[in-house]
Amino acid sequence: MFTFDQLAGFIAVAEELHFGRAAEKLNMTQPPLSRQIQKLEKIIGTELLERDNRKVQLTPAGSAFLDEAKRLMALANRAPVTARRIATGRSGVLRVGFTAASGFSILGPLLEEIASILPEVDIDLQELVTGEQLQGLLTGELDLGLARPPFDREIFDSHLLYKESMVLAVPTGHPLADLSRPVEDEDIRDEPLIMHSPTQAAYFYDLVIRMHSINHGNVLHTVSQILTMVSLVAAKRGVAFVPHSTTLLAIKGVEFLPLAGPSSDDPVELHAIWKRKVANPALRRLLQDLEFRAG
After folding, report:
1. CA-based R_g, the chain, Å
2. Chain centre to alpha carbon of residue 199
3. What residues pair up with 168 in beta bridges, in sequence order?
4. What CATH number belongs to 92-163+269-290?
5. pLDDT digits over 2-51, tens only?
6. 4-87 maps to which CATH number?
């Protein structure tokens, strides 16, 4: 394999088309420079330069190799700088997991803030439910998660991003929208329900059955995504318990009604979550600048 010294020697001769001037440019004498070029040509297996007593010029192979040689030298010169920037968290990749609901609420503003702190760091986004995010954090496939509790606080550190209430999504014009008060459990006793999946959306499922008296015989559909729930409500398939941030979707054919009881007390939480032992320098820098604390 050729060396970077040989590449530098070849580039100098190719640019000067004169061994003497190239050697002077490299602060060396001409004989060792000539030997470098000869060794390089032997390694590559073809002549790169045509030389006689009067002139030096590039062969067609030399012209093609010159472009690649310059590219390799540029990469070699840039590599230490890149390594230092990654080590200090100024470059690299930050892999962020997020729940679907956070995608239409806090994700956009948070990404703007991350970009202002880490302008040269690439952000790799992955839409995942909380369980998948926690697994990704454990395996190192994710650096930061935007997810729901519970999680093991001995393994993960966190910061509470926000809390919000639950509301009831109903089709536009539904009789419940005419109530002059928050909706109570008795009001929806006979309503067809669109419920969260107890496995894929366990956080919301557990919240709803803990806070409300649910007639499971009325459950018409069980889904995992908030957007799917609201779309089914718009299709008049039933009513659904959703976080207040869902109102930002502004889906036609859906109204959002306040709920009585614990749902009005902002029980829905979203946390930024990361492993306590931070491996990614970009994440370490982000956490410092955002002043996240365990929560």
Report:
1. 31
2. 25
3. 241, 257
4. 3.40.190.10
5. 888 888 889 998 888 888 888 888 899 989 998 988 998 899 899 999 88
6. 1.10.10.10
Q: Would you place residue 295 in the very low, low, confident or very high pLDDT band (cuts 50, 70, 90)? A: very low
Question: Does 3.40.190.10 match the CATH number of domain 166-265?
Answer: yes
Domain with CATH 3.40.190.10 in the chain: 92-163+269-290, 166-265
Confidence band, pLDDT 50/70/90 cuts, at residue 136: very high
Could you tell me the end-to-end alpha-carbon distance of the chain, in angstroms, rounded to an integer? 54
Which residue spans of the chain are classified as CATH 1.10.10.10? Answer: 4-87
Which residues does residue 258 pair with via DSSP β-bridges, in sequence order?
A: 167
Q: Sorting pLDDT into bands at 50, 70 and 90, what band is 293?
A: very low
pLDDT at position 115 over 50: yes
Count of CB atoms within 10 A of residue 121's CB? 22
Is residue 198 helix, strand or coil? coil
For strand 268-275 and strand 156-164, is the pairing parallel, antiparallel, or unpaired?
antiparallel
Q: Using an 8 Å Cβ cutoff, are 95 and 121 in contact?
A: no
Query: Lowest-pLDDT range, 25-29, 163-167, 204-208, 290-294?
Result: 290-294
Tokens of 200: 């894929």
**Closest to 204 measured CA to CA, from 108, 48, 99, 83:** 99
